[in-house]
Amino acid sequence: MRRKLAAGNWKMNGDRAALAEIEQVAKAPSAAGVEVLICPPATLLAEAAARAAGTTVTIGGQDCHPAAAGAHTGDISAPMLADAGARAVILGHSERRADHGETSKLVRHKAEAAQAAGLVAIICVGETEAQRDDGTALDVVARQLAESLPDSAGAENTVLAYEPVWAIGTGRVPDTAQIAEMHSHLRARLAARLGTNVAQGIRILYGGSVKPGNATEIFATPNVDGALVGGASLKAGDFIPIIDALAAAG
Ligand code: 13P
After folding, report:
1. Which residues sit with their C-beta closer than 6 Å to ligand 1?
2. Fewest Cβ atoms closer than 10 Å to its Cβ: which of 61, 75, 85, 161?
3. CATH number for the domain including 32?
4. CA-CA distance, 126 to 107, in Å (whole number)?
Protein backbone atom coordinates (compact mmCIF):
# COMPACT_ATOMS: atom_id res chain seq x y z
CA MET A 1 0.00 0.00 0.00
CA ARG A 2 1.14 3.52 -0.71
CA ARG A 3 1.75 5.54 2.44
CA LYS A 4 -0.12 8.82 2.32
CA LEU A 5 2.00 11.96 2.13
CA ALA A 6 1.19 15.54 3.08
CA ALA A 7 3.95 17.78 1.72
CA GLY A 8 4.20 21.50 2.36
CA ASN A 9 6.00 23.78 -0.07
CA TRP A 10 6.80 27.06 1.62
CA LYS A 11 8.20 28.52 -1.63
CA MET A 12 10.01 31.85 -1.00
CA ASN A 13 8.32 32.38 2.36
CA GLY A 14 9.40 32.02 5.94
CA ASP A 15 12.00 33.32 8.35
CA ARG A 16 13.42 31.73 11.47
CA ALA A 17 10.36 32.68 13.49
CA ALA A 18 8.30 30.50 11.15
CA LEU A 19 10.16 27.37 12.32
CA ALA A 20 7.75 27.24 15.26
CA GLU A 21 5.06 26.18 12.74
CA ILE A 22 7.03 22.99 12.10
CA GLU A 23 7.06 22.17 15.81
CA GLN A 24 3.32 22.79 15.95
CA VAL A 25 2.68 20.47 13.01
CA ALA A 26 4.87 17.77 14.56
CA LYS A 27 2.71 17.82 17.70
CA ALA A 28 -0.52 17.10 15.81
CA PRO A 29 -1.64 13.52 16.54
CA SER A 30 -2.62 12.95 12.90
CA ALA A 31 0.96 13.74 11.79
CA ALA A 32 1.98 10.35 13.15
CA GLY A 33 -0.59 8.54 10.99
CA VAL A 34 0.66 9.75 7.60
CA GLU A 35 3.96 10.96 6.21
CA VAL A 36 4.46 14.71 6.65
CA LEU A 37 7.14 16.61 4.77
CA ILE A 38 7.83 20.33 4.99
CA CYS A 39 9.99 22.06 2.37
CA PRO A 40 11.12 25.46 3.69
CA PRO A 41 13.46 27.81 1.83
CA ALA A 42 17.10 26.68 1.78
CA THR A 43 18.10 29.24 4.42
CA LEU A 44 15.98 27.41 6.99
CA LEU A 45 16.72 23.81 6.02
CA ALA A 46 19.31 22.88 8.62
CA GLU A 47 17.47 24.46 11.50
CA ALA A 48 14.15 23.06 10.31
CA ALA A 49 15.71 19.58 10.23
CA ALA A 50 17.08 20.09 13.74
CA ARG A 51 13.65 21.15 15.03
CA ALA A 52 11.95 18.21 13.32
CA ALA A 53 14.48 15.68 14.60
CA GLY A 54 12.86 13.06 16.79
CA THR A 55 9.40 13.75 15.34
CA THR A 56 7.64 12.08 12.41
CA VAL A 57 7.94 15.24 10.30
CA THR A 58 10.69 15.26 7.69
CA ILE A 59 12.23 18.18 5.84
CA GLY A 60 12.88 18.70 2.13
CA GLY A 61 14.38 21.19 -0.30
CA GLN A 62 12.66 22.99 -3.17
CA ASP A 63 15.28 22.55 -5.89
CA CYS A 64 18.79 21.23 -6.49
CA HIS A 65 21.51 21.49 -9.10
CA PRO A 66 22.20 18.41 -11.24
CA ALA A 67 25.90 18.42 -10.30
CA ALA A 68 27.17 17.34 -6.90
CA ALA A 69 29.55 20.29 -6.50
CA GLY A 70 31.42 22.88 -8.52
CA ALA A 71 31.48 26.40 -9.92
CA HIS A 72 27.74 27.17 -9.90
CA THR A 73 27.28 30.37 -7.95
CA GLY A 74 24.04 30.54 -6.03
CA ASP A 75 23.10 26.91 -6.59
CA ILE A 76 22.70 24.12 -4.06
CA SER A 77 23.48 20.47 -4.77
CA ALA A 78 21.54 17.39 -3.75
CA PRO A 79 24.33 16.14 -1.44
CA MET A 80 24.28 19.56 0.26
CA LEU A 81 20.54 19.25 0.86
CA ALA A 82 21.06 15.79 2.33
CA ASP A 83 23.89 17.11 4.49
CA ALA A 84 21.59 19.85 5.82
CA GLY A 85 19.09 17.19 6.89
CA ALA A 86 16.73 17.06 3.90
CA ARG A 87 15.17 13.73 2.93
CA ALA A 88 13.44 14.89 -0.25
CA VAL A 89 13.47 17.66 -2.83
CA ILE A 90 10.76 19.19 -4.99
CA LEU A 91 11.85 19.28 -8.64
CA GLY A 92 10.37 20.81 -11.77
CA HIS A 93 7.80 22.93 -9.96
CA SER A 94 5.93 25.02 -12.51
CA GLU A 95 7.27 28.19 -10.89
CA ARG A 96 10.82 27.00 -11.59
CA ARG A 97 9.87 25.89 -15.08
CA ALA A 98 8.39 29.38 -15.70
CA ASP A 99 10.77 31.62 -13.69
CA HIS A 100 14.01 29.81 -14.58
CA GLY A 101 13.19 28.17 -17.90
CA GLU A 102 13.68 24.68 -16.50
CA THR A 103 13.13 21.97 -19.09
CA SER A 104 11.92 18.46 -18.38
CA LYS A 105 15.37 17.18 -19.42
CA LEU A 106 16.99 19.33 -16.75
CA VAL A 107 14.42 18.16 -14.21
CA ARG A 108 15.34 14.57 -15.05
CA HIS A 109 19.03 15.29 -14.44
CA LYS A 110 18.17 16.95 -11.15
CA ALA A 111 16.05 13.95 -10.16
CA GLU A 112 18.94 11.60 -10.95
CA ALA A 113 21.22 13.73 -8.77
CA ALA A 114 18.67 13.79 -5.96
CA GLN A 115 18.24 10.01 -6.03
CA ALA A 116 22.00 9.48 -6.12
CA ALA A 117 22.24 11.59 -2.96
CA GLY A 118 19.62 9.45 -1.24
CA LEU A 119 16.83 12.01 -1.54
CA VAL A 120 13.27 11.36 -2.67
CA ALA A 121 12.63 13.33 -5.87
CA ILE A 122 9.19 14.93 -5.91
CA ILE A 123 8.70 15.55 -9.62
CA CYS A 124 6.04 18.10 -10.53
CA VAL A 125 3.98 18.13 -13.71
CA GLY A 126 0.93 20.13 -14.72
CA GLU A 127 -0.79 21.87 -17.61
CA THR A 128 -1.49 25.56 -18.10
CA GLU A 129 -5.01 26.89 -18.34
CA ALA A 130 -4.68 27.26 -22.13
CA GLN A 131 -3.64 23.62 -22.41
CA ARG A 132 -6.57 22.53 -20.23
CA ASP A 133 -8.94 24.60 -22.40
CA ASP A 134 -7.63 23.28 -25.71
CA GLY A 135 -7.94 19.67 -24.57
CA THR A 136 -4.22 18.82 -24.53
CA ALA A 137 -3.74 18.53 -20.75
CA LEU A 138 -3.38 14.73 -20.71
CA ASP A 139 -0.81 14.76 -23.51
CA VAL A 140 1.16 17.68 -22.09
CA VAL A 141 1.42 16.09 -18.67
CA ALA A 142 2.29 12.66 -20.09
CA ARG A 143 5.11 14.24 -22.04
CA GLN A 144 6.41 16.14 -19.01
CA LEU A 145 6.37 12.89 -17.09
CA ALA A 146 8.14 10.91 -19.82
CA GLU A 147 10.91 13.49 -20.10
CA SER A 148 11.30 14.37 -16.40
CA LEU A 149 11.27 10.87 -14.92
CA PRO A 150 14.60 9.07 -14.58
CA ASP A 151 14.81 5.36 -15.43
CA SER A 152 15.94 4.83 -11.84
CA ALA A 153 12.53 5.93 -10.54
CA GLY A 154 10.90 3.66 -7.99
CA ALA A 155 8.55 3.79 -5.05
CA GLU A 156 11.35 4.53 -2.58
CA ASN A 157 12.98 7.42 -4.42
CA THR A 158 10.24 9.09 -6.44
CA VAL A 159 6.96 10.90 -5.80
CA LEU A 160 4.91 12.57 -8.53
CA ALA A 161 2.94 15.75 -8.00
CA TYR A 162 0.19 16.78 -10.40
CA GLU A 163 -0.12 20.54 -10.10
CA PRO A 164 -2.27 22.25 -12.72
CA VAL A 165 -0.66 25.67 -13.17
CA TRP A 166 -4.05 27.38 -13.22
CA ALA A 167 -4.91 25.97 -9.79
CA ILE A 168 -1.74 27.14 -8.02
CA GLY A 169 -2.38 30.03 -5.68
CA THR A 170 -5.69 30.83 -7.39
CA GLY A 171 -8.26 29.18 -5.15
CA ARG A 172 -9.49 27.27 -8.20
CA VAL A 173 -9.27 23.49 -8.25
CA PRO A 174 -10.12 20.95 -10.95
CA ASP A 175 -13.25 18.96 -10.21
CA THR A 176 -12.62 15.54 -8.73
CA ALA A 177 -13.41 13.84 -12.06
CA GLN A 178 -10.62 15.84 -13.69
CA ILE A 179 -8.20 15.00 -10.87
CA ALA A 180 -9.17 11.31 -11.04
CA GLU A 181 -8.72 11.26 -14.81
CA MET A 182 -5.26 12.82 -14.64
CA HIS A 183 -4.02 10.69 -11.75
CA SER A 184 -5.19 7.48 -13.37
CA HIS A 185 -3.54 8.62 -16.62
CA LEU A 186 -0.28 9.24 -14.74
CA ARG A 187 -0.50 5.83 -13.06
CA ALA A 188 -0.98 4.20 -16.46
CA ARG A 189 1.99 6.06 -17.93
CA LEU A 190 4.12 5.00 -14.96
CA ALA A 191 3.05 1.39 -15.49
CA ALA A 192 3.91 1.52 -19.19
CA ARG A 193 7.36 2.87 -18.37
CA LEU A 194 8.31 1.08 -15.16
CA GLY A 195 5.99 -1.92 -14.94
CA THR A 196 2.81 -2.34 -12.94
CA ASN A 197 4.42 -3.24 -9.63
CA VAL A 198 6.69 -0.20 -9.51
CA ALA A 199 3.90 2.07 -10.76
CA GLN A 200 1.55 0.86 -8.03
CA GLY A 201 4.07 1.88 -5.38
CA ILE A 202 4.75 5.44 -6.56
CA ARG A 203 2.73 8.08 -4.79
CA ILE A 204 0.93 10.70 -6.86
CA LEU A 205 0.14 13.90 -5.00
CA TYR A 206 -2.35 16.54 -6.05
CA GLY A 207 -1.26 20.18 -5.67
CA GLY A 208 -2.99 23.48 -6.36
CA SER A 209 -5.12 25.41 -3.86
CA VAL A 210 -5.50 22.50 -1.42
CA LYS A 211 -7.16 23.97 1.69
CA PRO A 212 -8.78 22.61 4.85
CA GLY A 213 -12.17 23.08 3.17
CA ASN A 214 -11.51 20.97 0.04
CA ALA A 215 -8.97 18.45 1.33
CA THR A 216 -11.44 15.71 2.29
CA GLU A 217 -13.03 15.66 -1.16
CA ILE A 218 -9.66 15.68 -2.93
CA PHE A 219 -8.27 12.88 -0.73
CA ALA A 220 -11.31 10.70 -1.49
CA THR A 221 -10.37 10.79 -5.19
CA PRO A 222 -8.91 7.56 -6.64
CA ASN A 223 -5.13 7.56 -7.12
CA VAL A 224 -4.64 10.66 -4.96
CA ASP A 225 -2.01 9.63 -2.41
CA GLY A 226 -1.70 12.98 -0.69
CA ALA A 227 -1.08 16.63 -1.45
CA LEU A 228 1.62 19.14 -2.21
CA VAL A 229 0.37 22.22 -0.40
CA GLY A 230 1.62 25.77 -0.91
CA GLY A 231 -0.07 28.66 0.89
CA ALA A 232 -1.99 26.49 3.36
CA SER A 233 1.23 24.82 4.56
CA LEU A 234 2.67 28.06 5.94
CA LYS A 235 0.55 28.06 9.09
CA ALA A 236 0.15 25.01 11.29
CA GLY A 237 -3.48 26.05 11.85
CA ASP A 238 -4.18 25.49 8.12
CA PHE A 239 -1.83 22.59 7.48
CA ILE A 240 -2.92 20.42 10.42
CA PRO A 241 -6.58 20.14 9.27
CA ILE A 242 -5.27 19.04 5.87
CA ILE A 243 -3.11 16.39 7.57
CA ASP A 244 -6.15 15.39 9.65
CA ALA A 245 -8.19 14.96 6.46
CA LEU A 246 -5.47 12.83 4.89
CA ALA A 247 -5.15 10.64 7.96
CA ALA A 248 -8.93 10.16 7.98
CA ALA A 249 -9.12 9.30 4.26
CA GLY A 250 -9.67 5.61 3.61
P1 13P B 1 -1.00 26.61 -3.43
O2 13P B 1 -1.39 25.51 -2.47
O3 13P B 1 -0.62 27.88 -2.74
O4 13P B 1 -1.98 26.76 -4.54
O5 13P B 1 0.37 26.11 -4.11
C6 13P B 1 0.43 24.84 -4.65
C7 13P B 1 1.84 24.55 -5.01
O8 13P B 1 2.39 25.13 -5.92
C9 13P B 1 2.56 23.56 -4.19
O10 13P B 1 3.78 23.23 -4.75
Report:
1. 9, 93, 163, 168-169, 207-210, 228-232
2. 75
3. 3.20.20.70
4. 14
